[in-house]
Design brief:
Shape: elongated
Order of helices and strands: HEHEH
Helix content: 55-70%
Number of strands: 2
Radius of gyration: 18 Å
Largest sheet: 2 strands, antiparallel
Number of helices: 3
Length: about 110
């Protein structure tokens, strides 16, 4: 049971981080024409991996995306953001499926 709770907590953190990433991507896209705007990205995978290995806590971090700025100082790349959005959607689906599997296993164990 403790393993199931830990798995659910990990998956919940991943879903929260993915949601934060989707919000940041949406903000980047909405500011694609804003002079001087610098795109950001949410990272959490390394932190999650380390927390799972060492038993610590994971965190999501918003960092600059690091793309080169255009003439107006804006560095949003719409194709890059759309690619990240697609990738994030797939991550979201995979984590949601894993969470559903965990709850199904718990339900089966409870019902016997």
């Amino acid at each position: 049971m403790a393993d199931a709770v830990q798995a659910i907590n990990i998956l919940n953190f991943a879903l929260d981080s993915i949601e934060q990433r989707q919000q940041v991507i949406a903000n980047n896209i909405s500011n694609q024409d804003t002079p001087g705007f610098q795109a950001s990205v949410v990272t959490f995978e390394n932190s999650l991996s380390q927390a799972m290995q060492s038993g610590g806590t994971a965190s999501a971090t918003v960092v600059p995306e690091g793309l080169q700025s255009g003439t107006n100082g804006n560095n949003v790349s719409l194709p890059s953001e759309m690619s990240l959005m697609s990738e994030t959607g797939l991550e979201n689906q995979a984590v949601s499926n894993a969470l559903t599997d965990e709850f199904t296993s718990l339900q089966t164990a409870i019902q016997g």
